[in-house]
Specification:
By secondary structure, this protein is an alpha/beta fold. The protein is built from 15 helices and 15 strands. Helices cover 51% and strands 14% of the residues.
Amino acid sequence: MKYLIYARVSPRGSDFEGETSIAMQLEICRRYVKEHGGTVVDERFDEFFSGKDTKRPEFQRVMDELDSGRGEWDTLIVYKLSRMTRSLKDGANIFDKLFQQGRGFVSATENLDFSSPAGRAMLGMMQVFNQFEREQSAENTRNKMMQIAARGEWPSGNPPFGYRRGEKKDNKLYVDERNAAIVRDVFEMYASVHERTRTIISKYRGIVSQNRLFVMLRNQTYLGKIVYNGKIFPGKHPAIISQELFDRVQKVLPDPVIYNRPKAQQYKYLLSGIIYCECGNHMVGQSAKSGDYNYYTCRDKEHCKRRVSARLVDKAVLDYLNSMKIPQNKIDRAVEQLQKEAELEREKDQPEINQLRRSIVECEKEKESLIDAIMVAGKTLDEDLISRINIKSGKITAEIERLKERLDKLLNKGTTDTDYRTIALDMLKKLKALKDLNETDPITIRQAILANIHRVVYTFEKDFKIYPISSNEKEWCAIRKLVELLLLRFRVA
């Protein structure tokens, strides 16, 4: 195993909060590599740089090598995870790149090792979770923008020419009278049989280009409407042009041009990081410009230059995995174990839930007693006493809200957007129903490959050899090891 060591100290230096020096971090990592029979191919470090972002010279070199596939290393090792990043978002992106390249990650002092088959399977799980969170975040953003549009307000981005947005947090559109006059003139000119595109662009050179002109003329926002995600809502803003003028323009507008240019396909190179040329070098995924042809190409482009069809090799590996037996009983036990963990967690929270409910009832009774006291006393209470009662009532109300917030959090545990146990159960159930890997998603396939196959070698005879994790393995390693990894993920989440 070839290791790349990375070390970092913050701008506050190695004396802050017990941070170790660069030299000590490197030494501890070297010792770890030696104990595990590996080889250190390079050492990188950034001195006096924060871990809040990845804009560090040496770390950027590591990321560039990871993006290009040029790095002559198999595993990135650090003294602690915080030496690589202190950002959860950056960490998720880095692990995603490591997973796609089939490379490992080790934290020498934190018992984190993603360089083994089980570790790579864990990276696969993390990628699934991260992908779920990204999609959920994007969906939440779309829903929020849709709600803003449904209210008749501008959801996001710059407003159309002729309008301006209000102050901060005011999404309503307001007419910019100077530019609105240009919009009206452009519509009137285009609706005329004598005036067309060239005249308009010449008159408003530097303001209205040809592309902007046709976008403007088709924009229903000028009718007092909000268009978002294919839906149209009544807007709170006033219209700049009439429906009659808009319709006249649409009749003489040319049909929109749709370009059907071939795009490079986003082919999933399933064997990235574990496929080798018989000359000893890694092979990296490459696509033709059209995207119709995908290859694994030897990294030694000066001497070897050999390549093989990615689809051909991927199919051979999938056929190999499909021939392996998926133990249904182990999947059943995994599901049962996860469900048991969920039940134990609910039981653990139940005493606190009961106590919170009792506290809420007691607070509400105390608040009612204060109100009753005021009603009974009537006008006999002086202003000072009334003020103190109001303050007391306010504190009780705040306490009730705090207790209810905590109660809701406990009751809704397991239904949040990041309920990893539910995701895991769903994944295991899909595995149980899985009959053919060729018909499932690339992430699951990739996870199965990394958990069971050590390397694939493209030979000089233009054949390829598949080396499993264990020659005695008759069942999927992923099922046996994945349960422990999932449960570990839940405990640290």
